[in-house]
Amino acid sequence: MTVGVGGSDFATELAGIRNRRDAVPPIGAEEHARRVARAQACMQELGIAALWLDGTTNLAWMTGLRHGQSERPVGAMLPARGPLAYLAPAFEVERIRTMLALPGEVRGWEEDEDPYALFAEMLREADVAGGTVALDDMARVFVAEGMRAALPNHRFVASGPVTSHLRERKTEHEVALLRQAMGMTLEIHAAAARALRAGVTTTEVTDFLVAAHRKAGFDGGPAFSIVLFGEPTAYPHGVPYPQTLQEGDVVLIDVGAPLHGYVSDITRSYVFGTPTARQREIWDLSRRAQAAGFAAARPGAPCGAIDDACRGVVVAAGMGPGYRVPGLPHRTGHGIGMDVHEAPYFVKGNAQPLAPGNTGSIEPTIAIYGEFGIRLEDHIVVTEAGADWLTPPAKSVDDPFGLE
After folding, report:
1. Are residues 358 and 253 in the same domain?
2. Rounded Cα distance, 147 and 155, in Å
3. Which of 107, 165, 133 shows the shortest CA–CA distance to 337?
4. Residue 129 pLDDT exceeds 90
C-alpha cells in the first residue's frame, strides 16, 4: 500500500485541521500605496495618462479593494499624476467607502445615468482631457467599449505593460503569502489521501477539500478543485461525472484556495494500493520531467526553457512529440499570485526572460488516454541564484508525501 494513502476517514482528518490564517499577515495599506506610486512612475515612463482598474485582481493588487465584476462598472481611475479615485453605482458608494484600503474620492452614478460619461468627467477633472488611457486587460468588453465611446479623443491600450509588468515580480511578502498558502493546501492534500478508502466518491473528496480549506483559514472554499480516479486522471481538466475509488486506481487531486488574496495550487498523483510497474514508470517519468524544469529555471533564461526541459525528458522516453498524447498535452506551467493563472507562462516559444521574483508552477502532466494520467504540480520562486520550491515536491510513488 502506498505510504500515507488510506487508513483514516474524513471526519478524523477534518478534526485535525488547524486554522493558520494569520501565520503571515495580509498586504497592508503602505504596500498598496507603494504599488500605486510604482504604477504611476511606470505610466509616466510609458506615456500613459491614466489607468482604469476594473473590479479584477488588478484592482485588488493595486489598491486593496476586492470587489469583483458585475454588469455595473466598479473600479478605480489612476492618473499618471494625482490622486486615486473610485467609480461605483451611487447605491454602492457608502459600502465601497467601508472597503477601501487606500483613500480616494468615490464617485457614484445613478441607475439612469451613464457611468462612462462620469469616467470621462473624472479624467477631465484630473487634467486628462486627452492622451493614452490604459484599460484593465481583464475588463469586460462592454466596459471597454463604453469607455471608448465616451472618450473619442483618447487612445486606448491594454494595462498589461503596467499591471502585469509590476505583478510578475513578487515581493518577499508576497512570496511568504504564497508559500504559506501552498503549505496549508499541501497539508490538506495529505489529509485527503489518508482519508481515502475503496468505494469513496470524487464528490466526497471534493466536499472534504472545501470544508478543510475553510477550516484552515483560507478566504473561502477552493477557487478550483479537480478530483479524479482511474482512467479519468488522463484528462488534465477532469471529466463531468463522479467516480468511485477502486483498489489500484491512480488518484489525481488538483486544488487551491486564496489566502489573503494569494492563491495556492498543488496537484498530487498517487496510487490507491500498490503501484503497478506501468504506474511506477509514468510517475517516475513525471517526477524526472519536473526536476528538469526546475533545473532550467534560472534568472535570464527564457520562460520557454522550463517547458523545453520538461518536454525533452518525456519525448526522450518515447512520448509525444510536442503536445501529442501519450505525452504532455499542455504547457508546463503558469505564473501565480492573486490569480491561479497569470503571467509569466512557461510554454514553448516564450522568450521572456525569467527574473527574480517570478513565481509559477512546474506541472508536467502526462496523459495516456484509456489508461491514466500523472500530474505533479509544485511552484517555484525565481531567485538571483536560481529557483526555490515553495513546497517540497512529491518524494516517490511509494511515499508521495515524504512520510518515511
Report:
1. yes
2. 11
3. 165
4. no
